[in-house]
Design a protein that fits this description.
Chain B: InterPro entries: APC10/Doc1, APC_su10/DOC_dom, Galactose-bd-like_sf. The structure holds two protein chains of two kinds. By secondary structure, chain A is mostly helical. Chain A has 43 helices and no strands. In chain A, α7 packs antiparallel against α8, α9 runs antiparallel to α10 and α26 packs across α27. The longest helix of chain A is centred in the middle third of the chain and has 32 residues. The chains are: A mainly alpha, B mainly beta.
């Protein structure tokens, strides 16, 4: 039966490899009906999951017992995708009610895919409000596999202060203490790789047994040779890998009889990458640090190509014998999983660029038609490997070219980890809102990494958080140019354009994104921002609600919806929206700000201050936030602390005109007219066209009794307000005259007197220049 | 005798909305009519579609009642009327009354229209020229063109002035530079 499975499994994996899901599903269904084993079940579930039908995989796995870790992992993944978090947790840990397994148990049980399992578990914990446990899981996951970015990202989002230098580092911890179980979860590509590697010789042995009886005779003589080689090189994990690949066997790993699987898990973390790096070093031209899938794939047929040659092949087979010597009870299940996992590793298209073309080779060998095609592409690599093999076999020890390749691999791994560290530091800084630092870190990465969507998006976001919207816009437009398919971060871009009031760019962005992907929340957030800018708030509300429907876990959509409700004066609904945003993401400071703003509108100033301060605690360098806190404190009659806060705000960001404006208004309210005037004069230089500035200057002069200057400024303020006269300015002018004159003054009279005043003030050079500038603009 | 000049159409209220100085608040109110023909009621009056209309079905004056949950500031009322399509159904004399409830209404504006062909803007300002604050508005059609009995009204919009900027009791800022820093979004 097991023999019968193999070609079918290989065919299924090949179909999966080529994204021919219908074929894969059909064959897997037949296989499962025929065999009914757990591996076949897992294969079928994988086919369903990869074809996008998580619910099918879920139901299948639910109705049949799955005891193997890989089945359980897949079931848990389906549960999480279908938002059945409690069930997913139960599958992984035994649930909340039963005795829960500890994380160490999970590590031992899942072996190499423990890092992914823990990451998934951490995700479940965070979503169900057990943040401490979640972050613990993420930490452990990162310890096991430093190449995982998503646990690191989740930890940053939780506000944890990690040290990327410690996280993204290979450590001795990568050799786990307890041996992982024989049946390894196939989801871990690296694990699959190494199991495949381990199994490769067994498989070849199997096929040999089937097809070629003759080669077995050569086994014993070469076995010692290869065995010695492996044991000599075994201490160094990378060399182990090198040895593995070059000799096409994992017998070296099995050289440690106590920990036969440790080598496997060893390959879990660094090995995966070193393997592909090795492939890179072999293949040569690829400059990328991460081996491409094509390259990775090409590594593995090497065992086969070796097998086609008699001498290297024979060296592989003796390695196979050692596992039988070491762990006889495991042979039977391991072989079946091996056949299965070896096939699976080929099929995992998303693997860390490690593809095992192993199973695809099986039909190739059998049919011998595709072998030629695929072999050609692998010819160079196989030649290289063969050369290395022969050199290794010749030297019977640490061969220099092998050692060089190992150091090359090591260098490449280090470079990858260096990149991860740098990006990790930058991301960490951004999540703590140290935006300047984040920008400097992210800008200093190598140019070919800098000019990618991810890096530029995060730099753009850093500028956005600093309220430097023009810079942010520049960076984001670059992102659009480089990666037009990128949607992550586009909602920030749309808000940037909203602030800059660039309606044309915003509507173009909105159209592009909604055409491209109607199922991502960012596209609908952009559309909503577009209509909000056009003051069509009802339509904007509709689009933000659509964004929430598409992804209820997208906090920013709630925040934007809350802002829209606030603009349409539906303050209760706005409050509810902001609270929802905080429920989704506790560190979403925009939502805390939104709550504060609503309370300010309702004149609940102390509540407003509390919420603003909470937002500030999350993002301490926001000058806009400090400005708002200052205004609220002034409203609470705490003018001194208000002034202090505003001074802090101006210290952080001297370019923020509103801080100066509010400082001036507070000084004015406290009767410090001279200081206020000075402030406003400075502001006039920064923003010469703002009517509010002149309005306030006018009020100050009015208080000082200099009516002609007051009137002049009021008239300028009115001129500068193109959308029609502001009632307040008109009132201010009218009120000016009421105490002096009995009858109310008409506007014409005001303008005449203003004209007279203007003529008299022509002598003042600065003012006149400004005035002429104004009058030109007014027309 | 010189024919009275036709009432010129006003600007499209949508343009006004885009300036950000006014906001349409009809959605915050409860609308009711004195009478209507089936299929030609409040929905058609408030559907943003100039093709559909309200047709009254009773005796004059025909009334449109707009009641708010709370005392609301209203600045302007816009009515779309088109003599060419409605002929004798086109209102000619309209009275706008405000108050707290049905028994408390007082007329604030009365206007005559001669062959209107678009939006008619009715500004609702009190004695001090500021927008009025009220619970209820009643638009009464007192007479139609050609002495028609029933009336068509195609669309009504009611506008409130937009509150000042989100922070501070100051008028709206005018430059982008100021507005950029006004709020965190």
């Amino acid at each position: 039966m097991t023999v019968l499975q193999e070609p079918v499994q290989a065919a299924v994996w090949q179909a999966l490899n080529h994204y021919a899901y219908m074929d894969a599903v059909f064959l897997a269904e037949r296989l499962y009906a025929e065999v009914g084993s757990e591996e076949a079940l897992y294969l079928l579930a994988t086919c369903y999951f990869r074809s996008g039908k998580a619910y099918k995989a879920y139901r299948l796995l639910k109705t049949h017992t799955c005891s193997t870790p890989q089945c359980r992992y897949l079931l848990a993944k389906c549960c999480v995708d279908l938002s059945k978090l409690a069930e997913g947790e139960q599958v992984l840990t035994g649930g909340v009610l039963n005795k829960q397994k500890s994380q160490d148990d999970i590590i031992t049980e899942f072996g190499d895919s423990a890092s992914f399992t823990l990451s998934l578990l951490g995700h479940i914990y965070c979503k169900t409000d057990r943040v401490a446990k979640g972050s613990e899981c993420f930490q452990k996951s990162l310890n096991l596999n430093p190449f995982l970015w998503s646990p690191f990202q989740s930890l940053c989002h939780l506000g944890e202060k990690l040290d990327p230098d410690q996280v993204f580092r290979l450590s001795s911890l990568h050799i786990p203490v307890a041996p992982p179980p024989p049946i390894s979860p196939a989801q871990n590509p690296s694990h699959r790789l190494d199991t495949a590697l381990m199994e490769t010789p067994q498989d070849t042995l199997e096929l040999n047994r089937l097809n070629l009886e003759s080669s077995n005779g050569k086994l014993t003589s070469d076995s010692t040779v290869s065995y010695i080689d492996s044991s000599l090189i075994s201490p160094d994990p990378c060399s182990l890998l090198a040895n593995t690949v070059s000799m096409g066997s994992t017998g070296s790993l099995l050289g440690k009889p106590n920990k036969p699987k440790s080598g496997r898990s060893l390959l879990g973390g660094p090995a995966a990458l070193t393997l592909c790096l090795q492939s890179v070093s072999r293949i040569g031209p690829s400059k990328s640090v991460f081996g491409q899938s094509g390259n990775g794939r090409e590594v593995l047929p090497i065992p086969f190509s070796q097998s086609q040659g008699s001498a290297p092949h024979s060296s592989t087979s003796p390695q196979v014998l050692s596992p039988t010597l070491v762990a006889p009870p495991n042979i039977q299940p391991r072989r079946s999983t091996r056949l299965f996992t070896s096939a699976s590793s080929t099929a995992k298209e998303n693997s860390k660029k490690l593809k095992m073309k192993f199973p695809t080779k099986i039909p190739n060998r059998k049919t011998k038609c595709k072998a030629a095609k695929t072999a050609n592409s692998n010819l160079n690599e196989s030649l290289d490997i063969l050369k290395l093999d022969s050199s290794m076999n010749d030297s019977k020890g640490l061969s220099t070219p092998g050692y060089q390749s190992i150091t090359l691999q090591r260098a490449a791994t280090d470079m990858v980890l260096y990149m991860l560290r740098e990006l990790g530091r930058g991301y960490q800084a951004l999540c703590c809102y140290n935006c300047q630092e984040a920008i400097s870190i992210l800008s200093s990465v190598p140019a070919h990494h800098y000019n990618t969507g991810w890096v530029l998006t995060h730099i753009g976001r850093a500028y956005f958080e600093l309220a430097e919207y023009t810079q942010a816009e520049r960076v984001f437009s670059e992102v659009r140019r480089i990666e037009a398919y990128r949607v992550e971060g586009m909602e920030i871009y749309s808000t940037t354009l909203w602030h800059l009031q660039k309606d044309v760019a915003l509507s173009a962005l909105s159209k592009d994104l909604t055409d491209m992907d109607r199922l991502c929340p960012q596209a609908w957030c952009v559309a909503g921002n577009c209509f909000s800018l056009q003051q069509e708030h009802d339509i904007a509300i509709k689009f933000f609600q659509r964004a929430i429907q598409v992804d209820p876990g997208f906090a920013y959509a709630y925040t934007l919806l809350g802002h829209e409700f606030a603009l349409t004066e539906e303050l209760d609904r706005a409050l509810a929206c902001f609270r929802n945003a905080i429920r989704v993401n506790n560190r979403h400071y925009n939502a805390w700000y939104g709550l504060g703003m609503i309370y300010y509108k309702q004149e609940k100033f102390s509540l407003a201050e509390i919420h603003f301060k909470k937002a500030l605690s999350i993002n301490p360098q926001s000058s806009v936030m400090l400005c708002h806190i200052g205004v609220v404190q002034h409203a609470l009659k705490k003018s001194d602390s208000a002034l202090e806060t505003l001074n802090r705000a101006i210290g952080i960001d001297p370019k923020n005109p509103l801080c100066k404006f509010h400082r001036a208004s507070i000084l004015f309210a406290n009767d410090k007219y001279k200081a206020a005037l000075q402030e406003l004069e400075e502001l006039k230089q920064i923003v010469p066209k703002e009517s509010l500035v002149y309005f306030l200057i006018g009020k100050v002069y009015k208080k000082l009794g200099q009516t002609h200057l007051a009137l002049m400024n009021f008239s300028w303020a009115m001129d500068l307000d193109p959308k029609g006269a502001n009632n307040q300015i008109k009132e201010a002018i009218d009120k000016r005259y009421l105490p002096e004159d009995e009858e109310p003054v008409t506007e014409d009279f005001l303008y005449d007197s203003a004209a007279d005043v203007e003529e008299s003030s022509m002598t003042d050079a600065d003012d006149s220049q400004l005035h002429t500038a104004e009058s030109d603009d007014v027309l | 005798m010189a024919t009275p000049s036709k009432t010129p159409p006003g600007a499209d209220p949508k343009q006004l909305e885009r300036t950000g100085t006014v906001r349409e608040i009809g959605s915050q109110a409860v609308w009711s009519l004195s009478s209507c023909k089936p299929g030609f009621g409040v929905d058609q009056l408030r559907d943003d579609n100039l093709e559909t209309y309200w047709q009254s079905d009773g005796s004059q004056p025909h009334l449109v009642n707009i009641q708010f949950r709370r005392k609301t500031t209203v600045k302007m009322l816009c009515i779309y009327a088109d003599y060419k399509s409605d002929e004798s159904y086109t209102p000619s004399k309209i009275s706008v009354r405000v108050g707290n409830n049905f028994h408390n209404l007082q007329e604030v504006r009365q206007l005559e229209m001669v062959e209107p062909s678009g939006w008619i803007h009715i500004s609702l300002l009190d004695a001090k020229n500021s927008p009025i604050r009220t619970f209820m508005i009643q638009v009464a059609v007192l007479a139609n063109h050609q002495n028609g009995r029933d009336t068509h009204m195609r669309q009504i919009k009611i506008y409130t002035p937009v509150e000042e900027s989100s922070i501070g009791k100051f008028p709206r800022c005018t430059t982008v530079d100021f507005m950029m820093y006004r709020t965190i979004r």
